[in-house]
Fold this sequence. Notes:
Number of strands of chain A: 8
Helix content of chain A: 55-70%
Strand order of the largest sheet of chain B: 2-1-3-4-5
Largest interface: A-B, 32 and 23 residues
Shape of chain B: globular
CATH topology of the largest domain in chain B: Rossmann fold
Helix content of chain B: 40-55%
Radius of gyration of chain A: 35 Å
CATH class of the largest domain in chain B: Alpha Beta
CATH architecture of the domain at 205-348 in chain A: 2-Layer Sandwich
Number of helices of chain A: 10
Order of helices and strands of chain A: HHHHHHEHEEHEEHEEEH
Number of strands of chain B: 12
Structural class of chain A: alpha+beta
CATH topology of the domain at 205-348 in chain A: Heat Shock Protein 90
Oligomer: heterodimer
Strand content of chain B: 15-25%
Order of helices and strands of chain B: EHEHEHEHEHEEEEHEHHEE
Distance between the termini of chain B: 34 Å
Number of helices of chain B: 8
CATH architecture of the largest domain in chain B: 3-Layer(aba) Sandwich
CATH class of the domain at 205-348 in chain A: Alpha Beta
Amino acid sequence: MNTTYFKQKKSNQYLISVLVIITISAICFTISDLIGYRTVALLLLTSVSLLAIFFSVYPIFVAAILSALIWDYFFIPPHYTLHVDNPEDALMLIMYFVIALLNGVLTYKIRQYEKIEYQKEERQNTIKLYKALFDSISHELRTPLATIVGATDNLLSKTTPSLTEENKNNLINEISIASIRLNRLIDNLLNMQRLESGILKPKLDWSDMNEIIGNIQKRLKAELETHTVLIEMDKNFPLIKLDSWLIEQAIYNIVYNATVYTPKDSEIKIESILEKNILKIIICDNGTGFKPEEIANVFTKYSFSNKAKNGGIGLGLSISKGFIDAHNGNITVENQLNSGAKFTIIIPVELFVFNDYLDFSDLTIKKQIHDQQNKDTNN
Amino acid sequence: MTNKIKILIIDDEIQIRKLLEITLETNEFQTLSASTGKEGISMAVMHPPDLIILDLGLPDQDGQVILQKLREWYLGSIIILSVRNSEEEIIKALDNGANDYLTKPFRTGELLARIRSSLRQLSNTNSQQILEFGNLIIDLTTRIVKVKNEIIKLTATEYAILTLLAKNEGKVLTHRYILKAIWGPSYSEQSQYLRVFIGQLRKKIEENYNQPKLILTESGIGYRFAEKKTVE
């Protein structure tokens, strides 16, 4: 459905309506000797009707009233007065007015109808999306559950005593993997819910980037065994004000994705830079990068729900974006020349100026720290 | 049989109770179970356990309230085991006197480690003068700290934080708790100072600053000093 009607700026519509009426009136005025003033009424009425096709109701009312007044003032004899002598002209003026206004009313009705149709269509699209989403979620929830139910059935079954010790272990291992997968999915769904409900407000506190990155490495220890991780960060990275949990989660999702979608033995680099009050985190890998048709929708939720690997439903990266947006930050993604994906996170942060804490400790500590710092810098 | 360590489980979910009973009993603990807060308290009164595992989402009363009630008289260890994983909830539980906090789903190995650690903390209100954690040695009498047999220089504050954490090995100490203990109550909200000092300390005592093995971070909550047993 064409929605340009709604999108046209209202102020523009008023301006164009007024200009059209004035222009048509001016043209008619110059040739009013050739055409009768009643023809002028028809021309003006046609203009109003044409405007009504494109514009919404109030600009049409304005055009109607303006054109009626102009017709009366400049064209109906006696000229240059609103006074009308001839009762026939008076009747025509009233009819002109009514028809012009009717144009507006009809336009309004059509617009309403269009709006309802539009909303209907929107709702149908949303329902379609939700259906796809529910299918995807229920699939992703049921797959690990099926693994758990199936594996435990096998383990508990008294009729299949031939299960070898190795197979038993394999089944138990599958149960464990399936449970972790379920838990990760539930975490993501809950996080998305928190983001969408608007409950999420970052709790800013002084955070240590070293800790954040260290935690991510610790949490992804198993996944990172097949990959190489490079951490680049100044050893004396100052404290910055962040919701460390949210930022950790945001980076975690990106790095986790990298471990899933890049081939074995790929390299993942996490670089943290501080440029004045801007925290910049760059996460890049040397995998195959995103396909050109995918890259625009990387942060759109559920956009990968059909192709996601390892029990994903395409939520992780949109959660990352949500958490970073909540910090008034920004995240972008691009493919690097000749190699994998590169995510750039930018967040404005408050810094903890390192020397601040000197006036906080007692004098002896102050001196010791100072000495220590001097020693550190001399080394 | 009677000298087994007794653990009371307060959880309304029968599956969790069963899982805990099996896990704990195979590990030579004796278990008691209660499915409501009220039942849990009366059980704790009748058969005082060595340790209590408490769920927060109980049907009759909030676990935090049960925790406060228990702490009015119960001196043993209490470990919270809950699906609630917000920082506020965890800090509140620790402030209310919980010894440790584990969120569901949990790894049983982790739970057993926390139980053992809590029980140890209880038994050694210790008078040990030399604390040893792998390469790190802290001599509390001489105030000398060594890493790989080399004396390292610590500021008074760094030393105070290190010993506070080390004496409570295995236990989570909240930021607020550490700030209060080291700098006094008026600094209890100034977590940036603590973070700076922890950073300094790590540079001095950790082998790899980015992958600390001694001073462990509990994101948004506080710090936990690794237990002797787990440090190689």
